[in-house]
Amino acid sequence: MSQWVKRGGKASRVKADGEVRRSQSIRTYGAGSLMDLLDRSVLIGGLDFWRFGTEGAVAITEHRLRQTVTSMLNQLDEPVNLSTDKPFVHPPAGLDGEPQRSNGIEVFEFPQWFVCQDNKCRALVRAPQGLELKADRWQHYCDSRKYSPAVPVRFVLACKNGHLDEMPWIYFVHEGQGKQRCASPSLRLIEGRTGDFSEVAVRCACKQWRYLAHARAEEANPPCKGYRPWLGPEAQENCDQRPRLLMRGASNTYFSQVVSALSIPESDSELVNVVRDLMDVLTNATKETLPTLRHAIPKLAALGDASDDEVLEAVEALKNPEEAEQVPLRTAEYLQLTSQPAYRTGVLPQPDDKFFARRYDPPTGLPDGIGQIVVAPRLREVAVQVGFTRLDAPTANLQGEYDLQVTTCKLGLNTEWLPASEIWGEGVFVQLDEGAVRDWEDRKAVSARAKVLLAGYDRWKEERSNAPKFPGVRFYLLHSLSHLLINAIAVECGYSAAALSERIYCAPRNDDVPMAAILISTGTPGTEGTLGGLVEQGKHLLEHLRRAYDMGRLCSNDPVCAYHSPAKDPTRRDREGAACHGCLYVAEPSCERFNCYLDRALVVPTMGHPEYLAFFSERPRLTDRV
Fold first, then answer.
1. What is the widest separation between alpha-carbon atoms in the chain?
2. In a shared domain, residues 525 and 570
3. Domain containing 414: what range?
4. Band of the pLDDT at 195, cuts 50, 70, 90?
């Protein structure tokens, strides 16, 4: 990706210091995120600063996802109107070794406060004053009459509304502690041996000084100024929050809000599917002009015997998809995955298939508690970034959708598209037996455990007025089982555990479509697919369940892990039961919920808990059902 750095109001081309995958442009390094380069820190520009060269943006099509995202965006006070032809696009691909202003993503130098690296100097200055650009790096002229390299200060301010600002160093040392500002502030940043906040101090030449630990209290900082520097200098807005001191490399400076959907066969009528392919000529058709168009344009013969009224009704439905009743994302995928034909040797996906899955019935029968196994050799997942937050990670609902009215930061000001990526891969879908899940939920031990988990969740929710609903003990079961299976399958499938990801299908028993299933998949952006190693493991699910059972029974941190009480934990792990790095945690890209909502005691017998609390109270075996 091309790096363009703005200094002093001018943009100059510089040699790229590294590479960022296009798929990372909607997650870790999306619009508004901070990125560390070799000798500076930059802020990724908003969508208005993304350049696609002379060929333009490459669109990604996913009808169901567009409907869902449009519905979410319409909830905002200032709705984003997505383009009809290119609502989602691939991030731009920069030109390696040849950065051009017309191609790539523009970034801005942030923060602009720098620290001199000379141990005797340690001057804290704001670029470009007091600094000089030498060999594409800021240099500070020290009192010892020599130049020393300067690096960006590692502290910034951010508020709950997502605004980002520089740390007001001069204010912090003077007015921030009730002192008068001196005539000519000259600051130094003194860091202790460990770099801890309690050892970092800011000193001025007027002999005023202050420890940085005082800035950790929000009331010690001035009111937020509403800066949104990733959107440009004119994007300031009002804000009623107090900013918080952050390390610019901390994980809580940026939480991307990504909504994804699997490409599944459309459930529309045959006429709607035909009209969709003819929308280029039917978009503006009316009752008066349609007969003429059908007579004059040969390809409209594909409409067959459909009446003009039926055709116009289909056109209107495609032009206004948000008005049509839509099945939620996860529910539609669940219904599609659970209705697949039986697996047959030699039946393979076609080259142009976006979705191909088959129900696998093991010759020896299904493991106890399992309702269905579906292997999917071909999956296409489209993921689109709809916004981001800072300080607190956003939590999606059970359908994977976000409430965008909750402190969501804009990606751009004047764009009609959102950045997206498509991932081709394979997966294994495991559906639990609904009857077995309901029987398990009715156990007294499970009801009691649900109250314990809810108490922890309520404590977490006290500080968050916008928290979603408690997902329920069924979700804890599915999520914990998913993590155990990821670690168990990784031993055999040829992929590392970090290469596997989960997709949870959960809906309560009183829902129109109750769901209790997980999809474990792997994939790679921009490729044709994977090698089939994961699909093959779906045929040996009993072995993996047994391995997961053995791995989950005992944690290296037991008994501390097993006896963990979420409502009483001083470390504030409020949304986890018996779960930690020694048993259930997986790599964050693999998990949908940032390693929260986990409790292995619900899946396998755990010390300190009754065995009948676990869904698999015994080591998995073949079911007695025919």
1. 89
2. yes
3. 329-613
4. low
Assigned domain for 181 exists: yes
Give the pLDDT score at 271.
76
One-letter amino acid identity for 109?
A: E
* Contact (Cβ atoms closer than 8 angstroms) between residue 409 and residue 32: yes
Confidence of residue 1 (pLDDT cuts 50, 70, 90): very low
CA distance 407 to 160: 7
Nearest alpha-carbon partner for 432 in 398, 490, 499, 480: 480
**SS3 label, residue 36:** strand
Residue 4 pLDDT grade (very low, low, confident, very high; cuts 50, 70, 90): very low
pLDDT band at 530 (very low <50, low <70, confident <90, very high): low
As a whole number of angstroms, the distance between CA 614 and CA 369 comes to: 12
Q: What is the pTM of this model?
A: 0.84
Residue 7 phi, psi dihedral angles, 5° rounding? -135, 125
Q: What type of residue sits at position 513?
A: V
Q: ∠ CA 20-24-26 to the nearest 5 degrees?
A: 135
Torsion of CA 389, 390, 392, 396, to 10 degrees: 20
pLDDT of residue 107 exceeding 80, the answer is yes
User: How far does CA 579 lie from the centroid of its chain?
Assistant: 22
What does the pLDDT read at residue 97?
A: 60
For the chain, the domain total comes to 4
Question: Does residue 259 sit within a domain?
Answer: no
CB 134 within 8 A of CB 140: no
Residue 601: closest CA among 460, 448, 457: 448
